[in-house]
Amino acid sequence: MVAQTRHSGTNASSSKKRLAFHEKLAGKGVTTDALLKKLKTLHQQLAALDQDTVETNSLATVRTELILTSLLLHKDRGVKAYTACCLADILRLYAPEAPYTQHELRDIFQFFFRQLSAGFKGADEPYYTEYFHLVESLSTVKSVVLVCDLPSADELLLEIFQNFFSIVKRDLARKVELYMADILVALIEECTSLPSDVLDILMAQFTDKNAKVDQSGYRLAVAVCNGAADKLQRHVCQHFGDILTNTSHPSGDDSDDEPQPDKDTLLKSHELVKRLFRSCPAVLHSVIPILETELRSDALEPRIMATQTLGEMYADKGGVDLVRKYPSTWTTWINRKVDVAVGVRLKCVEATPALITNLPECREALAELLKIKLLDPDEKIRAAVCKVYSQMDYETALHHVSEEQIRAVANRGLDKKAAVRYQALNSVGKLYNLAYPEIENNDAAAITKFAWIPDEIIQTANTSTEIRTLVEQFLADHVLPLPNTSTNTATKEREIDEVAWTDRLLSVMRFLSERSVQVLINLSGLKTNRPNVCDIYLESCIKNNGGIIDGDEENVTKKLKLSIHHLASTYSDPVKAAEDLNTFAKANENRLYKLLKTCMDPQTDLKSLTKAMNEFTKRVSQLPTPISPTLATLLRRSTFWIISASSLPTLLKRLQKVSGPRPSEANPTPNTKSHHAANNALTLLTAIGKWAPMLFRSHISELGRIINTGSTDQSPSKKTPTQPGALSIEIALMGLANAVRSDPSLSSTIDKKTNARIAKYALGDDWRQAKFATRYLAFAKGSKVYCAQVVESIANTIEEESELPMEHISALTQVARFAPDAFEQKSDVIVTHLVKKVLMVPILSENSEDDEEEWYEDPSQIPDLLRARILSIKVLRNRCMAHASSEQALQIAAPVLKLLPSLIEHEGNIDGRVDEDPKAKSRMRLQAAISLLHLSTVESFAQAISPKFVRLACVIQDSCFNVRLAFLAKIIALLQPRKLPARFNVIPFLTILDPEADTKNNAASYITNVKRQLPAALRVDNLEIIFIRLLHLLAHHPDFNTTQDELMDLASYLQFYLDLIATSENISLLYHLSNKGKTVRDAESHGHSENFYIMCELAQTLIKARAQQHSWTLPSYPGKVRLPSDILRPLPNAEATNQILKTVYLPEEANVWLSEKFKLGSSKEKKEKEKKERVPAKRKAPTTKNNGHSKRPRKRKDEDDDDDEEADEQDESDVEMEDVDRPSKSRRTNGKSKNSDDVEENGVPRRVSRAERLSARTLAKEKLDKNASDEEDEE
């Protein structure tokens, strides 16, 4: 580059101008002031001269004097400042040739930059204008490029760069920075070789931790790099390569090993590349290929850092250009998704959130990357992919992420690894929370892409305890968070928007399926009976007092221990949960106890709940032991955080806004926001009224007001479900009735007017209103009078009219249960009418084409007669339950205990001679089965029902799916609080062959939960000892047969039981029970005894195979077990016992069938078998056969040993039987047994056809297959 004047390119004047200054600058006796005056005059004249018009000969004297050491080394700063300015002007005027030798030039330029370094400090400093002139001159004239031609150019360049980057930090004007940048750019472009030290100075400005745009040194370096990018590219590339080479060390002792760069240096170098790319990407033209090479390196650290570095560079503003300029680098980078190293794949995934927004052309490739890595074998990668979506903003997710991608992330909520599950639910939860305002505003795009998220996640809550905990957290954090407090500017008080909080719940429910709504209600705690285990735990903690107990220490300690055990069993890590709960009890923080009690109180309003929960969470986090996660889960499960008493006014208001009948298939909910809100409010209010009526306690007056509303010209008795407000009145009656039932003292707050109106509703034309109104009257003040009036009125109706309205029967269900004395006044009349005029009236099918249908999918379509029959059964059942503790209980219940099993026996027909409508029969047998379950909660009734237990149990295999599902739900609801005898726990195991997955999944979930929650002793009684009852039940099963299909089905029941119950600890007990089964006989018949022995042998085979597969030892059970005497009897003598033990009842082919179906055999045996199969056939040894068939011995050696040992122990029958009253002989022989059905009159056994042996379960399977084939034929 050639030095120029500031005015190059202008027209020169016709005459040359000479310098007018002729004074001597150096000489003795010249004072500093005089010298300054001379230099100032000279500077002014030189500055006024133009290069094209100056007579350079006139400058000869001053140019020589200006480089005298007396001036260059003068002690006065002003002298040196003006001297530098004059020299700069001389160089400008002589350009492009310098009038000095190289040695003189070196001294001049050193003089320039030393003066700048020493004196150029700020605008208020002396001689600032002269220094500014010097910098401006060097920048515009470019005379500084002469430095590059000097012998010591490298040293001088280094000094210039050092001085400039030191000067620039002095907070000078931005124009000075620009001049400096021009000077440095000119030097870089002119020099033949840039010294490495100079480049280090430049790069140091980027590696400084304070390198930001507001830093002048950083700005100067950026300007220089951008100005001289072409020249710097090669040097920067070499600089980066040198860092990787010079700082590397061998990975091992072998000299041939590939060098492994030092990690810290690698980190710094890649950080430098990122900063350069951010501010001056042009200098990296040759560095990008190096990064691409690193991506392919065999060394791990370079691959990881290169992947991370390029990921951040692609995310920067220049990322699009980078992809376009270096397509091969982009391809190599995105292919790191399949790198063998987890760390590399992880960095690739972590870079994607910003790339989705920044690289529109690459979104398809990025989506494919995330889709593939969502199924990566490593959990860290899957978790990172899920986390990517939590880092997106709403607009990115809405416009650049497909619904398919979000659904795939939601599906990872069921991942096997906890970290992946958490990130998946957290991500979709955040997306839903961001989208909620738009969903609330009915934005179609937001609804389509995000509204389904809560439904998808809530449905997984029952999968396991771990997932349930995550779903609870997902709801609490993102879907249904507690409201934030806002400060009222007028009152300065913090307020809670209860309406918005409740409306959000209704909005979420709008897009939930019926199943999800029920799960949400379960998670809300509405169905939990109070006081529950959480209340007991808190009470025990308070009484425990940190271990200092005032009295009854044993009882307090026991209750605390049991409550902790029960609570811990609901956590994914019971041991850790128990430790944390114990820690909380030992902490004995009274403030925490008070806060928790406030949170758990059903009457706590939303504002107090939010405040208490926030303070509780904060205080728990400050405890020395980290127990916050456990206590947070406890807090959610013990409080009404989804719906509370504060929600009721809003729910009632939403319900009252819409009139009409209860939504059904015949009357679907209109697709409007208000109608959906009303329907969801109805669902919630119904749940509250049914399970949590205590929430209505503070709203009794509001319920009374609703009940008293209605048309003034129409009496309540004439109300119909379609009248405005009918549903609100029904809900008010339900809430009031159940609230008064839980706390009868509330009835004193109800005025006489309301009571009189409720009495009219009890005899009204709406059966649900009549039901709840009568229930209220049964607990209200003066209940005896009210209930007697209701019964008297209904009895008069029976006498005056031939038909009893269904609504009156609905009222009788409540009177019979809660006011038995009033009911008994007219019981003869009522019961006779219900049996003869209601139950005995058949319901014939109206349309023969619909006979295949077995269920009214829409409850509103149930005929009044059928509903009346169902209600009549409830009246009879409730009457029995009301008298359960009286001496006449069995006498009153006898006809009912005969009627209900008969209904089940005849498939729902009250009279076996009349074939009724299948839809009516399914409802009738379901109600009969459920009624028997309720009656079985009473010990005396349970014993009376025991002979019909097998038939009752087989309802779980009914041909109608809805019957099976409802029956299972009811039996689980009664088994969980252990209201039913333990033997009923065998029924859920009969669901394994159900054609629908829902039934067996629900059964398996119940068994798994109860197994985890029950203490050891109760687990043995309720789940393990019942194994003998399961064998007995299967022996009496209608499908029992020894053919391959039936026997394998029976084995499936046992295998299902073993899958859920068998462990290494109880396997010996189960084997002992199956052995003991062959030392007793069936209580009914010899034929059933043989069936029972077959089941015992089948169980032994499966148990031994399971022990082998899991490498469990199978020792002899050390204890004694009492076998149930109600179903089993001791054998007459030891000889009979030994004979049975030595006899093999299982068919010869059974072992082969079991091996084929269940893949029995230990892993060792399987390997040996596979090894044999790999051997060529010609090398097989011939098998020995007798007459072409292998002979199966009648005795098995392993069983003979056990049998002989047991036979030696039994001199007499040592089977200990439970102390259960034996059923009378007449009861056991009443009706035809299976055995008698199989014998003809002449005593010759007849062959029973398969059709005769088919149970409803098999019929259901065949029917399902038939329907499927019919549909295929139609297609």
From TrEMBL:
Entry's transmembrane regions: none
Compositionally biased region (Basic residues): 1177-1195
GO cellular component: chromatin; nucleus
InterPro entries from the UniProt entry: ARM-like (IPR011989), ARM-type_fold (IPR016024), Pds5 (IPR039776)
Pfam family, one: PDS5
Annotated GO biological process: cell division; DNA repair; mitotic sister chromatid cohesion
Subcellular location: Nucleus
First-listed, main subcellular location of the protein, grouped into a coarse class: nucleus
Region of interest (Disordered), ranges: 657-677, 1163-1275
Record key words, sorted: Cell cycle, Cell division, Mitosis, Nucleus
Compositional bias per record (Basic and acidic residues), positions renumbered to this chain: 1163-1176, 1249-1269
Record-linked Gene3D superfamilies: Leucine-rich Repeat Variant
Keyword Cell division on entry: yes
Comp. bias (Acidic residues): 1199-1219
Protein's recorded name: Cohesin-associated protein Pds5
